[in-house]
Design brief:
- With about 300 residues, the protein is α/β, with parallel strands linked by helices.
- Helices cover about 35% and strands about 20% of the residues.
- The chain has ten helices and 13 strands.
- The chain has helices at about 55-65, 90-95, 115-120, 135-145, 150-165, 185-195, 220-225, 255-265, 270-275, 280-290; strands at about 10-15, 20-25, 30, 45, 75, 105, 125-130, 170-175, 200-205, 235, 265, 295-300, 305.
- Strands 1-2-5-6-7-8-9-10 form an eight-stranded mixed sheet. Strands 11-13-12 form a three-stranded antiparallel sheet. Strands 3-4 form a two-stranded parallel sheet.
- Helix 9 packs across helix 10.
- About 45% of the residues are buried.
Length: about 300
């Protein structure tokens, strides 16, 4: 039986990264944003100060154990909150790079990149993904609901400064919501800001998974595809989960499934692709947790999502 990791999750089939091992170094849900579209729900710890939220040595111990006999396409800092809030992020990236050639990715909202210490830590990764959903201060406050002291101007400034100093790949994710930030003039402004940052790749995403604010609605796939050409470089629409090779095949572990759902709301079919069990088995295994209140089901686009 595989260990029950506390800070590692997956590898999971990712829309962007193939088989990605996740590292979660912030408590649920510690973030500098409280985005209306967040799949993890509302932010409960709205902060901008960095801290060693989880013991550095414990994360290193789990990584050493996992690296001894596992493999992934990427090792990704993501999960329950904003990873750049972790004060020892740079040290942890160095620890990984000393032990494996698997590329390291930091999935960040980018809000803290105006700080030199955050830029220095993030720059140790191979790829850094930042996000952009707004076009001015008013839309920034409405969509991203930032922690006190953060501004749209500083977020964009930090992205420019990081791009100028970072030798790795910078990806930009533009998250679009129907009727929120999809008017032509809004898209033009977002695209102009994205172009000024100069990312290597741009991804268009939308609210496929249940969002924090239930009124948020996804943008149709056809519309997303039509918007790609407005961005430079040309944007890519992020696809849904592929039925990738299972990370837990033959070892259905309820704790592991719950850990994935906590960080990544998913359907029974998606969990089946990860675990190797059938969707029917997944539903049966998780049913008691629904009854006990440990999990919830929310319907979106005709599918039941565990969250």
């Amino acid at each position: 039986m595989k260990p029950n990791y506390k800070y590692l999750f997956g590898p999971v089939p990712s829309r962007r990264l193939g088989r990605s091992l996740g590292i979660d170094v912030t408590p649920f849900k510690t973030c500098s944003f409280d985005c209306i579209f967040c799949q993890c729900g509302n932010t409960t710890s709205h902060v901008t100060e960095r801290d060693e939220f989880v013991p550095f040595i414990d994360v290193c111990s789990e990584l050493e154990l996992w690296l001894a006999d596992e493999r992934a396409d990427y090792i990704t800092f993501a999960g329950s909150g904003e990873p750049t809030l972790y004060r020892r992020l740079g040290e942890l990236i160095d620890f990984i790079k000393e032990r494996t050639e698997i590329p390291v990715i930091v999935l960040s909202n980018g809000t803290l990149l105006y700080r030199p210490d955050v830029r220095e830590d993030a720059a140790r990764a191979d790829i850094v993904k930042i996000s952009l959903s707004a076009w001015d201060e008013e839309s920034f406050q409405m969509i991203n609901r930032p922690a006190e002291g953060l501004s749209f101007e500083n977020a964009v400034l930090g992205a420019h400064e990081f791009r100028d100093s970072f030798s790795g790949k910078l990806w930009l994710e533009v998250f679009l919501m129907d009727g929120v930030n999809t008017e032509p003039k809004q898209i033009e402004k977002i695209a102009a800001i994205a172009r000024s940052i100069g990312p290597d790749r741009i991804h268009l995403n939308t609210a496929v998974r249940p969002p924090a604010l239930t009124s948020v609605r996804p943008v149709a796939a056809e519309k997303l595809a039509a918007l790609c050409g407005l961005f430079t470089p040309k944007a890519e629409v992020i696809a849904s989960f592929d039925a990738a090779p299972a990370a837990m095949r033959g070892d259905l572990n309820t704790d592991s499934l719950v850990g994935l759902i906590r960080r990544h709301p998913a359907t029974a079919n998606q969990l089946a692709a990860v675990s190797g069990a059938s969707a029917a088995v997944i539903r049966r295994v998780l049913a008691p947790l629904i009854e006990e209140g440990g999990l919830q089901i929310e319907q979106r686009n005709g599918e039941d999502w565990y969250k």
